[in-house]
Each structure stands twice: as C-alpha cells, then as structure tokens.
Amino acid sequence: MNIMIVGAGKVGITLAERLSEDKHDVTIIDRNEEVIRKASETLDVLCIRGNGANLQTLTDAGVAESDVLIAITGNDELNLICCLAAKQLGCKYTIARIRDPEYTESFDLLSKKLNVDQTINPDRAAALEISRMLRFPFALNVEAFARGFVEMVDFRVEISDHIVNVPLHELHRRYPDVQFTAVQRGKEALIPDGRFEIHPNDLVYVTGERNAVTRFFKELGKDVQRMKSALLIGGGHVSYYLSKILAPMGVRIRLIEIKHDKCVRLADQLDKVTVIHADGTDQETLDREDVGNCGAFICLTDRDEENIMTGLYGKRCGAKKVIVKINRLNMLGVMGDLGLDSIVSPKLATADSILRSVRALSHSQDSVVQKVYGRMDGAVEAYECTALKDAP
Q: Please, what is the Cα angle at 107 between 102 and 113, to 5 degrees?
C-alpha cells in the first residue's frame, strides 16, 4: 500500500521503519529539515520537507494515490487538519494521533464532521495496557484477542514453578486448554516444540481462552486476585484515563501530583480518587503513603529518570506490582536488567496500534489481518486473522 506519515518524531520513524519492512511504499512529511535529512539517510522511504496540512505539499507528495495517511505530529489540531485535507484530496483512509481528552471523548463527532477514519490516543492506549497488566499482578503484559475472549499473558518463570524442566508435550496433557506460545531466554526469542523444556527465569507467553488462562495460573499457584489498591505518581493524561478505568472497578486509588492547580482540577474530574498534593518522587512522601503495602505502584511522571528511580524504590520497599512509564524507546531494552519488567510506553503503544490498523487494511487473498502484536523487541509477532472462504 501507499502510506503517508506526517510527523517524523520517534513514533513516525518507528512506523516508517516497520511499514517499510512490510514492503509498503512509505512517504514521510515533516517541517524540520534536520529530521528529514536523518530519516532519508537511515530509512528506505521517500522523505519530504514541508507542512503536512498544506494542500500543495500533500498534492505534490501524491496523497491522491495514498491508501493511508497517518498524522502523528505533536499538535492535535494540525493532525486533524492533515486528515481533513488528505480526505478532500482523495486519500482512502486517515488516522490521527489525538491526546486531548476532550477530542477523544467526541470522536464520533470528529469522525462524521471531519471525515477522520480513526484516532489514536497514546495516553489512553497506555492506560488500557496498564489496566490489563493489573489483572495478573505477576504478569509482565496481557494482550487480548477475539474481542477479549482470548488472552496472551507473558510472565517470568520461577524455579519453584512446577512447569520447569518438563517437556511441553507433557505440559500440554496437564493443561490442554492453554498453549505455551513463545519463550524468551536471555536475549533469544524461541518458538518451542513438544520437546522444549522451560527453564527458571524464562519469559514465557501463555495463550488461551480468558477463563482457561486464569485457571492455569491459579493451578500454578500464582496470584489471580483482582488488584484492590493503586498508588499513582504523576497527574498527567495517562493517570487520568487509568483512574477513569480503575475507579469504577472498585480499586482504591491514591494519586500524587506535585502541581497544586493540577491537583485541584483532577480532584474535580475524578470521582472516588484521593488526590494528594506532594512530590511523588520523594522517599519521605512514599514512606508516608506506605508504598510497600500498596497493591500496584505506577510511576507516570513525564520524566523517565524519575519514573525509573521511583519505581526501583517502590520495588525495594515491597510493592506488589510496579509499573513504570517510559517515553524514550531506546531505553526499553535495558529495563529488565534494572529489575523493572512491567513497562508501558505511550509511544510504543501508539506505534503498535497504528501498525495493527494498517495491517488490517492490507487485505491479502488468503486472510484479513485483524490484529498484530509485536513482542520481544519485534523478534516475534502474533497475528489475529480472518480466514476467507477459499483460503487454503
């Protein structure tokens, strides 16, 4: 497909790289000359310097022949205008990155009036990812397939787990309703066969129907009780969306924010959430809030370094589940070495969500891809497909 990306930030470059690897024809548009120069040197894509909301720029770039336009600049309004202009010029499908909650909550109106086919909210996507992690406190991540009926859960194997050193064909007889889909051992990504044996410290991906997965972990002796309390650090958009998801589920939420005006606003917007005006990265504050006894400790400030250091402190104090937000994609590979396995990245969540949408639009003769999930830094991918009538 012909795909046009407006905005050459981290997400735009990541998308361009992955879509180019999928053999799509990709064009990047950005105003910044230095960014465009670097992209042209490192990627096998067409790079154009210009304003993606300008009709002439879009026309010259060939938007009329584009199958998809993805607007992911840092400005919500600019992204919406880019999509509107692209649709008027003949682009078949448009995707806009939108962060402002007011725009997100009025998506239906945006879709009808501005002809935007899809919006991606990175902060809400990150909040949804965190809420899935909290279903299983021991899990690093949980992905949903088949409208939530099927789940893929990855977890770190401990030496005491009774699946250690047992061939998978034997484990399949014990647990016929789940599949041991993939294993990461050190830096190596493995797709196991029946003779494969799981070792302590392996990162194992288990897939199955939702209730079957819960039953498997219960039999394994893992904690499958719903998280009852959460301590959130930072009052940004991710915390706002996460509170909106967790509070109605009965989770007791305390949210610490350093800016007084933001505390007042959040207290007004969020029901059943205790908003605390304090420095959430300060150890005295965390000790006073008894961080070691909270169910989930979630670090969501805008600074990666603060999230990492605060998360490490919470882990040392004994917090049951520690989740850290990271903005810089190049830091994701070293987080496990620091002892922080549960990581969420709004930028990566955005890229993955857009990739799933684009691949779903890319119909082949045999199947229609509904979802694609990249794992182990892209070494392994899980696809959800629809088999068409004459597919072999």
A: 110
